[in-house]
Amino acid sequence: MHQQQNSKKYFEQVKTTHKAWFFIKFKMKLKSFSQIILIGITGVGKTTVGKYLSEYIKSEFIDLDKSIEQRCGVDIPTIFEIEGEAGFRLRETNELMTILAQKSSIVLSVGGGCILSDENRQLMATENTFVVQLFANIEILVERLSKSVAQRPLFHKVDVETKIRELFKARQELYDSISDIKINTSFLKPNQVVETIVKNIQL
Questions:
Q1: Three-state DSSP state, 35
Q2: pLDDT tens digit string along 169-191?
Q3: Distance in angstroms (rounded) separating the CA atoms of residues 95 and 69
Q4: How far apart are CA 100 and CA 126, in angstroms?
Q5: DSSP label at 127?
Q6: Backbone phi, then psi, for 37, in 5-degree steps?
Q7: Which of 52, 147, 156, 176 has an alpha carbon 20 to 30 Å from 30's alpha carbon atom?
Q8: CB 33 within 8 A of CB 130
Q9: Closest by Cα among 163, 167, 158 to 135
Q10: Which residues 6+ apart lie within 8 Å of 85 measured at CB?
Q11: Chain centre distance of CA 39
Q12: Phi, psi at residue 105, to the nearest 5°?
């Protein structure tokens, strides 16, 4: 009886030690990727997933577009209207550069067109970053984006599905070129996407 109790106590200690070691290894791995960046076409859920992920790993979340709006004092559609896409892209690069230089531990969600710039891709694809590409089925994106066209300048006065297919064709190789992992969010809840990201970071 005494021997059984000792055996049980031993295995409980081993189990506890294993959990502690696993947690330490995970935190070390996260530290090596101090900046987790979410990329992908608009509507795939980058902002939502980013908020869930930052809460899970206890890190700051930043939405690049929101950061630009706060700095400018106006929303993205207004910037497009006044400065055009070229003006917005310049602001986007400057904001991205500032955030990555000043923030050592973040989850960063970037706009769908952020990868169009060579400079932006170089800024995001470094040894300190872990780049997660989120994507979704075309029909899912059409359903999501049709509800928020007013907030998305590139979708004003165009057929949503046609525009999505156009963007996919133009940007897919660029997304792939800097991605560490790709996740289809079509039928996943945000917490399931987060679990997939965390598992890949642990590898």
A1: strand
A2: 999 999 999 999 999 999 999 99
A3: 10
A4: 11
A5: T
A6: -115, 130
A7: 176
A8: yes
A9: 167
A10: 113, 153
A11: 5
A12: -140, 105
- Report the distance separating Cα 76 and Cα 133, nearest Å: 22
- Could you give the C-alpha distances from 150 to 17, 63, 157, 160, 167, in angstroms and in order? 53, 19, 10, 12, 18
Helices 160-178 and 138-145, axial angle in degrees (round to 10): 120
pLDDT digits (tens, 9 = 90+) for 35-82: 999 999 989 999 999 999 999 999 999 999 999 999 999 999 899 999
User: Taken in order 113, 98, 76, 134, is the CA torsion positive or negative?
Assistant: positive
100-104, 106-110, 140-144, 146-150 — which one is most confidently predicted on average? 106-110
**Structure-token pair, residue 86:** 């070229």
Token code pair at residue 170: 């133009």
In angstroms and rounded to an integer, the radius of gyration of the C-alpha atoms of the chain is 20
Find the DSSP H helices in the chain. Answer: 2-32, 46-57, 64-72, 76-102, 118-124, 138-145, 160-178, 190-202
| pTM reported for the whole predicted model | 0.81
